[in-house]
Fold these 3 entries.
Entry 1:
Amino acid sequence: MKLAIFGVTGKTGLEITKQALEQGHQITAFVRDPSRLGVQDEQIKVVVGDVYDQASVALAVGGQDAVICVLGAGRELKKTTLRSTGTQHIISGMKAHGVKRLIVVTAMGVGESWDTLSPMNKLFFATVLKSARDDHENQETAVKQSGLDWTIIRPSGLTDMPRTGVYQVGEKIRAGSSQIARADVADLILKELVGNALIGKAVTITN
């Protein structure tokens, strides 16, 4: 399968890339800085660009079987539209090139999953992480209104633990440990690209 990955230089994007390569997929990695790409492989095509530039985004999307969006702002807490604007440009590019399958990673606490948070976590999201949450909310709105075959994955607290293949997935479920390995998020995404059981759904993944 031909997969375009946005956010490929982040930890979750890197894990998706590694597992996708292990499964024989061809990757188009969209990056601003190629030197930050954490893996090299002959099955990776690098497209250099910026998600704020719609033309370069469309270039990466053309000819793909599916697009995976793991855009993030790192530890930056100031107001940003990186996720929402980037995702809107991805959607526009997909429509222009006739690509239908889109998987987007946001966060637990966004959208309908807000009610599954503890009072303490709600306070944290509404204050410290308010800018990120607002951007994710706008991002999810764009995805749900896209008309594409979309799936939204909302992880609980991400960790760098090894893949287990054992996790909970569902709409509006509560977090057990409030943690999930990035490797397990990647595992779910790649399984979903084959199974297509979650099209049109926004689900939480947690331990």
Note: Helices lie at 11-22, 54-61, 82-97, 119-126, 130-144, 182-195.
Entry 2:
Amino acid sequence: MARAPVSAAKASTVKHHSAIQDAFIRRTAHAIERLATQADEAILVEAMGAPTDFGTLARVLTDFGAIGRAVAEIDPDAVDLAREIEHREAVVRRAGGMLSAEDAGKLLRMSRQGVDKRRRSKALLAVRQGGDWLYPRAQFHEHEAIPGLADVIRGFEASGPWVTLEFLVTEDDVLGGLTPREALLKGGELRGRVTTLVRGQESGEGFA
């Protein structure tokens, strides 16, 4: 069987951008170059310590010295968005990272379809990123979801998965300085306290 020329094979793997994609890349590349030249190198070094590309960019964008106060005043929404990205990065780190549906299935010893079924029934917490569902590691213990997880997910349903995740991994004085995740694993009276906090959230009281 005749083999395709190497050049043709390579050409078939080249990804072509649309006109709007090229325009987006040019515009954002210009902004990133400007940030890199304006920011103090110490800020850049700290930003490079972020676990993801988005986290690196967010850390620079939230520094007024890097972007210039005038730019921040013109487009405050961009700064707010960068702060939210950085905040979510911190929550993900406290949650021990994210698992794909396949990795969650391996941990739970079930198929991806089983994982999807649990997510749809609100027995597993997942956040949507792009076209994929990602599962915070903090909701698992050994090869199962932590006890009481479904009640927490349903109680915070109106607030969304990010608020739910932050609740799970945030220490609370009501729980003696433990996170709800840690309290649910200990069980007993502590689990009851978590239930009280969830009910408070449902009634609009928020959580500490």
Note: Confidence is low (pLDDT under 50) at residues 6-12.
Entry 3:
Amino acid sequence: MKKQPLKAAVIGTGMIAHKAHIPAYQSMADYYTLDAVMDKTMASAQQTADLFGIKSAYDDVQKMFLEVQPDIVSICTPSATHAAFARLALQHGAHVLCEKPLALCYKETKELFDLAAKQNRMIMACQTLRYHPDYLAAHHYAQAGTLGPIYYAEFSAIRRRGIPTWGSFHRKAASGGGCLSDLGVHMLDAAIWIMGCPRFASITGTTAALFGQREEQVHTSLAESGAPAGISTKRRYNPSEFDVEGFAAGSIRFENGALLNFKTAWAVNLPPRFNLTMAGEKAGFSLPEMTLYSVLHQYQADITPRIFHEGPYDHHPFSGHFYLIENAARHLLYQEDLMVKPQETLLVTALIEGFYVAAAKGREVRADEIMNP
């Protein structure tokens, strides 16, 4: 790999680019130079370039690749465009960091990983919850055998009223899905990672969309709708465009016998909650409080480890993106292991695709229907 710093470019100028990717690249001068930003409109691209002092702005992605020749690109566009931009970046010899989901179906995701391998390039989905100290601790306990075989897990990723009203998340043509592919995917990915990426056998679930088309029901704060650091630009929310799920609940069976239940929502008449619990033969745990439940000799024991949040980026509302972007640089420059592995992203994509098929058909969907159609 070339000597540092790596030449970076960002595709898309929305909230996650402004509040996570661009600040992360610019905070790591030893690893990166951020040389270009591209958006579908030159006005947006130039506004972002001016705001952050980025050298070049483009509204033509082909021209950007030819003129800038970036070593790595971040894809921060609506989900339905991810695969096309990722494919183009790989074809131009760039490594890729892509906002989740990498693609909207298992087949297309596998094609991207196959192309990356052929081009000898890295492609990684921005599954940033893994970099949180408490989730890292849970993963450590699982991999160290402290929990024993995990046979049950469940998570909730619930916003009481948190429909994103500042982007295109509520439009299926742009995003491919609603709260599951936007919000629940983070907890789903973390669960799969902690469980050791078991092979899934089947999935079932249901969706609802009860509030997105009622303007009086979507009043919320930016933080509660997924923009804790605010936004630089805002697309007017039109309730008549809402055509994705605002609530999703499902159940996943794995080949090893484990079961994962989940529910996620942008808007639901339940209290907001983001939690993950797992039960193993030796111990269980709950997050975010990171408590272990087990026995000590003949006594029941609840153990709460002291986990310190003193990393260099822990103060940032999008700290996971900073750690992920640093992880990518250290992988490319020093062969550090990537935190997010292809097989894990493939499984998460298969589960999301399988869930939407199951919800649409009203029945359980087997893994081979998605992964070996």
Note: Residues 253 and 259 are 5 Å apart (CA to CA).
